[in-house]
Amino acid sequence: MKEINFENVPEEEYPEVALKLIDFAGKETIWLFNGNLGAGKTTLIGYICKALGVTEDIQSPTFSIVNEHLCDHSKIYHFDCYRLETYEEALDFGMEEYLDSGHLCLIEWPDRIEELLPDNHISIELSQSSEGGRNINVKCNP
After folding, report:
1. How many domains does the chain have?
2. What is the pTM assigned to this prediction?
3. How do residues 34-74 score in pLDDT, each as one tens digit?
4. Structural domain of residue 59, as residue ranges?
5. Are 141 and 123 in contact (CB under 8 A)?
């Protein structure tokens, strides 16, 4: 298992962290974002999308569950599974097809759909540091 950690990262350093995460992930297309409400999951996802060429503003798909973004001749799917009560709800909107699409899937609150997730993924844990920035711990489960 590969691992990379960033300690006490202020938001102004997120663009650099995003580039390092993209490099670290390689060809892995399933990225799981864990952290409490307000931990910075959507903010970091926005910087990752910008680094990959998305030009539109990135908003949390809290109510739509999934947002699709176009970038450099590809797609990025951004999920917020917080409102899902069962993994069957994810099946109902076609989650398996998204996961199998080969496109980048950035998933907030992945614990809500754990039964559907593949073994191969990137796991990103965000937490607030005592100094005010964010700790970002990343593991690759190939």
Report:
1. 1
2. 0.94
3. 999 888 999 999 999 999 999 888 888 777 889 899 887 79
4. 12-118
5. yes
